[in-house]
Amino acid sequence: MITIDDILETNRMITHNKLDVRTITMGISLRDCAHPNIKQFCQNIYDKITTSAEFLVKTGEDLEAEYGVPIINKRISVTPIAIAADACKTDDYVPVAEAMDRAAKAVGVNFIGGFSALVEKGFTNGDKILINSIPQALATTDVVCSSVNLASTKAGINMDCVRQMGEVIKRTAELTRDQQALGCAKLVTFANAPQDNPFMAGAFHFHGVSEAERVINVGVSGPGVVKHALEGLKGADFTEIAEEIKKTAFKITRVGQLVAREASKRLGVPFGIVDVSLAPTAEVGDSVARILEEMGLESCGAPGTTAALALLNDAVKKGGLMASSHVGGFSGAFIPVSEDEGMIAAVKAGSLSIEKLEAMTCVCSVGLDMIAVAGDVSAATISGIIADEAAIGVVNNKTTAVRIIPVPGKKVGDVVEFGGLLGYCPIVPVRSEWSSEAFIARGGRIPAPVRSLTN
């Protein structure tokens, strides 16, 4: 039975603690759009996207109005373009990104993901064209997001791609320097990328083996709700804290489950998963870092931070799993620096460094996310950071990622403004006085670990 107390509690979560559905994301297959002529292929994907997602935004707005739950973003993910465009007789996929951009704007979504390649074990011709096209594609579009999966526990780490992605990120930063290197905020490199992720910039919809023609995935968020719940547990031990987080995550996820099922029914599209994640924003009261500090840390990054984050991530997963029929994506706690008010404060205070962030990624969702660094950080250093983060994912059989933004002309002490959900970020120091260039130049593939042999 739903009681008046349940209703009042949910209302308080929304109005005071910033509970929201962060995104409804429609996955769309582009396999049937394949064509050797690039112009025809672009027209095919424009038609497929605009037809499939015609009512996505309206449905989201209707659900917001009826249930009073903020739905912050409506998004689309598509078949990785390196796969979908492989039949095209071309050496440039920038026109495809531009067609995606036009289609996304036509239906009114906030972002479209899937300008992507999956190259953990090697490159096809389409993969090479896609990766070479990324800088220009992100410079000439507004809402297109790109991702490259370059490592997995089963395959190891494609170090040729690691080296190339450092150069791609630097080139993307340069081409979007008049926007504070904003193109890099729409580009992420992965190890063990999930194919049902509704969050950007890493969403893609991998068809051919498991996903439906279209699918609805929903991402929920509520770090402010979790922090509020812990405020009443002063002096409690960690068992009690974990139990409270589980209960709160259950309540948050039930909201996402309701929205997902209703959106699925109204759009006539199968329900995929709910991603049970605590995705922060740069607004006060919507921070993962502040949850960790509520456990007793003076500042995020202090000794004990990784343990606190491990507890949080695990409890969120356990609570969310009981609240939804299908949980997927990342499902945990995100730690994007520019999108978390508490993380921003910790970087400014000096308690949080890129090295500590790397340690934290061993126990939480995703990885080094939305980190702005000085514009003179080299491509080889960025590749080294990507390699380290990929190694964490591969060895621990978890998803890790890097979304790093080398901002031309900026140095440590400066602050970069991205706006909206992307927030703002102080330039994070990088220990780059020692070079990893010779290491990155070796190329090849770091073999898969022993734990990959699970058959």
Give your account of this protein's structure.
With 455 residues, this protein is α/β, with parallel strands linked by helices. The chain is built from 15 helices and 13 strands. The protein is globular and about 65 Å long. It starts with a helix and ends in a 9-residue tail after the last strand. The model has no long low-confidence stretch (mean pLDDT 89).
Morphology call? globular
How does the major sheet shape up?
11 strands, mixed
* N-to-C span: 46 Å
Number of helices: 15
Low-confidence stretches: none
State mean pLDDT (0 to 100 scale). Answer: 89
CA radius of gyration is 21 Å
What can be said about this structure in brief?
The chain has helices at residues 4-15, 38-52, 56-67, 81-84, 94-107, 125-139, 159-175, 223-231, 238-267, 288-294, 305-321, 341-349, 354-360, 379-396, 437-441; strands spanning 20-28, 71-78, 111-118, 144-152, 156-158, 187-191, 214-221, 271-276, 368-374, 400-407, 415-417, 424-426, 445-446. The chain is of the alpha/beta class and 455 residues long.
Question: What keywords describe this structure?
Answer:
single chain, 455 residues, alpha/beta, eleven-stranded mixed sheet, two-stranded antiparallel ribbon, 15 helices, 17% strand
